[in-house]
Specification:
It is a single chain. By secondary structure, this protein is mostly helical. Helix content is 68%, strand content 3%. A two-stranded antiparallel sheet has the order 1-2. β1 and β2 form a beta hairpin. α1 packs across α5, α2 crosses α3 and α4 runs antiparallel to α5. The longest helix is centred in the first third of the chain and has 25 residues. The two termini are 15 Å apart. 33% of the residues are buried.
Length: 158
């Protein structure tokens, strides 16, 4: 495997792993997941906020697992990258509006209290890094260690 293949494999596992872990950490308490989305104070109807909060952990788990497996690699990396863009926009919006919230990415999320301060810069940089990994995987999706390669019946996916 070329160095690009190794980088793609690592990028795929890190991106997929981040999504999978984020979803698994939230799936056990969907009410808190909804509260975390509500903390962003987005101009959406309450029913839509509930839909996002209830489905986001499931989407993160499924998408993360599929990215790690290397199935429909280019497309799933694109979806992961789009999620990172949405997360970056949401975090930037909360920061610009002066909200003091925990993003709910790898934690319960919601409004911060007791003098805690939001870490928007680091959260945005983390998601930007994950976006870069997604773009890399989209550009170089051909990795032998993937379901795509196995389906193609070769060392390199079609």
């Amino acid at each position: 495997m070329s160095w690009k293949g190794w980088v793609s494999l690592v990028a795929r596992v890190v991106l997929g792993g981040a999504l999978l872990i984020a979803g698994l950490l939230k799936i056990g308490d969907l009410r808190q997941s909804v509260a975390a989305v509500r903390a962003y104070q987005l101009p959406f109807p309450d029913g839509f906020v509930s839909l996002i909060g209830n489905t986001m952990p499931v989407i993160e788990i499924v998408l993360g697992a599929v990215i790690i497996a290397g199935l429909f690699t280019r497309w799933t990396a694109a979806l992961g990258g789009l999620m990172m863009i949405v997360f970056i926009v949401g975090l930037s919006s909360a920061w610009a509006r002066g909200l003091n919230i925990d993003c709910g990415c790898f934690s319960p999320g919601g409004e911060l209290t007791n003098g805690q301060q939001a870490g928007y810069l680091w959260e945005i940089l983390r998601d930007l890094g994950l976006l870069i990994l997604a773009v890399w995987v989209m550009l170089f999706p051909r990795v032998p260690a993937s379901v795509d390669a196995w389906i193609a019946g070769s060392d390199t996916p079609a």
